[in-house]
Design brief:
Elements (H helix, E strand, L loop, with lengths): L1 E5 L3 H10 L4 E3 L2 H6 L4 H12 L4 E5 L5 H15 L3 E6 L2 H12 L3 E7 L2 H10 L3 E4 L1 H6 L4 H14 L5 E4 L5 H9 L4 E4 L1 H8 L2 H18 L4 H5 L1
Parallel strand pairs: 1-2, 1-8, 2-3, 3-4, 4-5, 5-6, 6-7, 7-8
Helix pairs in contact: 1-3, 4-5, 6-8
């Protein structure tokens, strides 16, 4: 499963890229606007942090096909390989997806709330479809169930598009989404920390250190090897 950072905060992206096996970054207009800085400068800096081999998903701010296509082509030139234009699902977005795929632009169809939105987005050529897990839960739906059915639909119909689950609030949601076979998730930096934290792990490490010190004191293995 792919782990992707859902953030445009430079320092947090640097931290995640240093400590976690991340596969890329996703952004959207809301995430970008929170940084209150020059857009082009920001996305260039993000690209420089994660490098050309990681995926970078940037969302269009246009709603009509012509402008979406133009944005996609220009952003792809700017960002290079492993770039994906995020397009909210809509008739204009689907049309733009089909046109951009002809020109080799990676597409992530986003703001997915139903199984059929995901299926038709994949049929249009989207490389990824991004269903919103927590937002579905908030409207008394079942985000995990919806994602599970999307994953299954793609298997049944032999579709190559990948499911990039988004909108998470808890580590439990992430775990359940992983269990249904989702190919990718995008989560905020704080959730990365929650995924690896457990108090019993800390207790175990404390015990290891105490037992070692009782025999070897402050010596480290590297000191003994020298």
């Amino acid at each position: 499963m792919l782990y992707i950072i859902d953030s445009a905060h430079i320092e947090l992206i640097k931290k995640c890229a240093e400590f976690y096996p991340i596969d890329g970054v996703t952004t959207n207009p809301t995430i970008i606007s929170k940084e209150k800085t020059d857009f082009i400068k920001l996305i260039k800096e993000i690209r420089s942090i994660i490098g050309p081999d990681k995926m970078f998903h940037v969302q269009t701010t246009s709603t009509d096909c012509k402008d979406i296509v133009e944005e996609g082509l220009r952003l792809r030139e700017l960002m290079g390989e492993n770039f994906y234009l995020k397009i909210p699902v809509s008739p204009e977005g689907l049309k733009a997806t089909m046109e951009l795929k002809k020109q080799g632009v990676g597409i992530t169809m986003t703001a997915i709330f139903t199984q059929q939105q995901a299926l038709i987005g994949a049929k249009a050529g989207a490389d990824f479809v991004a269903p919103y897990v927590n937002r579905l839960d908030n409207i008394v739906s079942d985000g995990v169930h919806v994602v599970s059915e999307i994953v299954n639909l793609f298997k049944v119909h032999n579709i190559n598009s990948k499911v990039l689950a988004a909108s998470f609030k808890t580590a439990e949601q992430v775990h359940k989404i992983a269990m249904v076979g989702t190919q990718a998730i995008t989560i905020n930096p704080e959730l990365f920390e929650q995924l690896v934290y457990h108090p019993l792990t800390l207790y175990a490490v404390d015990d290891f250190e105490a037992d070692w010190a009782s025999v070897y004191g402050n010596q480290k293995i590297i000191d003994m090897i020298k």
